[in-house]
Design brief:
It is a single chain. With about 100 residues, the chain is mainly alpha-helical. The chain has a single domain, classed as Orthogonal Bundle (Arc Repressor Mutant, subunit A). It has five helices and two strands, in the order αααββαα. β1 and β2 form a beta hairpin. It starts with a helix and ends with a helix.
Protein backbone atom coordinates (compact mmCIF):
# COMPACT_ATOMS: atom_id res chain seq x y z
CA UNK A 1 0.00 0.00 0.00
CA UNK A 2 1.34 3.41 -0.92
CA UNK A 3 0.61 6.67 0.86
CA UNK A 4 0.99 10.04 -0.79
CA UNK A 5 3.58 12.38 0.69
CA UNK A 6 0.79 14.53 2.14
CA UNK A 7 -0.79 11.53 3.87
CA UNK A 8 2.52 10.29 5.27
CA UNK A 9 3.63 13.69 6.53
CA UNK A 10 0.20 14.43 7.99
CA UNK A 11 0.23 11.17 9.94
CA UNK A 12 3.76 11.88 11.15
CA UNK A 13 2.75 15.36 12.36
CA UNK A 14 -0.26 13.90 14.17
CA UNK A 15 1.98 11.29 15.82
CA UNK A 16 4.38 14.00 17.02
CA UNK A 17 1.50 15.77 18.75
CA UNK A 18 0.33 12.50 20.30
CA UNK A 19 3.87 11.72 21.51
CA UNK A 20 4.06 15.13 23.21
CA UNK A 21 1.67 13.79 25.83
CA UNK A 22 -1.77 14.44 27.19
CA UNK A 23 -2.62 18.13 27.10
CA UNK A 24 0.75 19.13 25.64
CA UNK A 25 0.81 21.34 22.59
CA UNK A 26 3.29 21.77 19.78
CA UNK A 27 3.69 24.83 17.57
CA UNK A 28 4.28 24.67 13.84
CA UNK A 29 8.02 25.50 14.14
CA UNK A 30 8.48 22.65 16.64
CA UNK A 31 6.68 20.12 14.47
CA UNK A 32 8.62 21.37 11.46
CA UNK A 33 11.94 20.86 13.24
CA UNK A 34 11.00 17.42 14.59
CA UNK A 35 9.84 16.12 11.21
CA UNK A 36 12.28 17.94 8.94
CA UNK A 37 9.48 19.60 6.96
CA UNK A 38 9.02 23.20 5.93
CA UNK A 39 6.85 25.34 8.17
CA UNK A 40 4.56 26.11 5.23
CA UNK A 41 3.99 22.41 4.60
CA UNK A 42 3.32 21.72 8.28
CA UNK A 43 0.86 24.64 8.39
CA UNK A 44 -1.05 23.18 5.43
CA UNK A 45 -1.17 19.73 7.02
CA UNK A 46 -2.29 21.10 10.37
CA UNK A 47 -5.08 23.04 8.66
CA UNK A 48 -6.36 19.79 7.12
CA UNK A 49 -6.09 17.94 10.43
CA UNK A 50 -7.90 20.76 12.21
CA UNK A 51 -10.75 20.62 9.68
CA UNK A 52 -11.08 16.91 10.46
CA UNK A 53 -11.20 17.66 14.21
CA UNK A 54 -8.07 15.63 14.86
CA UNK A 55 -6.24 18.60 16.36
CA UNK A 56 -7.25 21.79 18.14
CA UNK A 57 -5.38 25.02 17.58
CA UNK A 58 -4.86 27.51 20.38
CA UNK A 59 -3.29 30.94 20.18
CA UNK A 60 -1.02 32.76 22.56
CA UNK A 61 2.33 32.24 24.18
CA UNK A 62 1.56 28.68 25.23
CA UNK A 63 -0.48 27.99 22.10
CA UNK A 64 -0.01 25.38 19.47
CA UNK A 65 -1.76 22.21 18.43
CA UNK A 66 -3.16 19.54 20.75
CA UNK A 67 -5.07 16.38 19.96
CA UNK A 68 -8.74 17.04 19.39
CA UNK A 69 -9.78 13.50 20.29
CA UNK A 70 -8.63 10.71 22.53
CA UNK A 71 -5.93 8.75 20.65
CA UNK A 72 -8.01 5.56 20.87
CA UNK A 73 -10.81 7.32 18.95
CA UNK A 74 -8.61 8.27 15.99
CA UNK A 75 -8.74 5.83 13.08
CA UNK A 76 -5.90 5.95 10.57
CA UNK A 77 -8.31 5.46 7.66
CA UNK A 78 -10.30 8.52 8.70
CA UNK A 79 -7.14 10.61 9.03
CA UNK A 80 -6.01 9.52 5.57
CA UNK A 81 -9.40 10.47 4.15
CA UNK A 82 -9.18 13.98 5.59
CA UNK A 83 -5.62 14.34 4.26
CA UNK A 84 -6.83 13.60 0.76
CA UNK A 85 -6.87 9.85 0.26
CA UNK A 86 -8.89 6.81 1.13
CA UNK A 87 -7.67 3.32 1.91
CA UNK A 88 -10.54 1.85 -0.12
CA UNK A 89 -13.08 3.33 -2.49
CA UNK A 90 -16.74 3.30 -1.45
CA UNK A 91 -17.70 0.10 -3.29
CA UNK A 92 -14.58 -1.97 -2.55
CA UNK A 93 -16.20 -4.22 0.05
CA UNK A 94 -19.22 -4.83 -2.20
CA UNK A 95 -16.97 -6.07 -5.02
CA UNK A 96 -14.60 -8.21 -2.94
Amino acid sequence: MKFSAQEEYGLRCLLQIAKAGDGASLAIPEISRLEGLSQANVAKLMRLLRKGSYVIASRGQSGGYTLGRCPSEIAVGEVLASLGGRLYDAGFCDRH
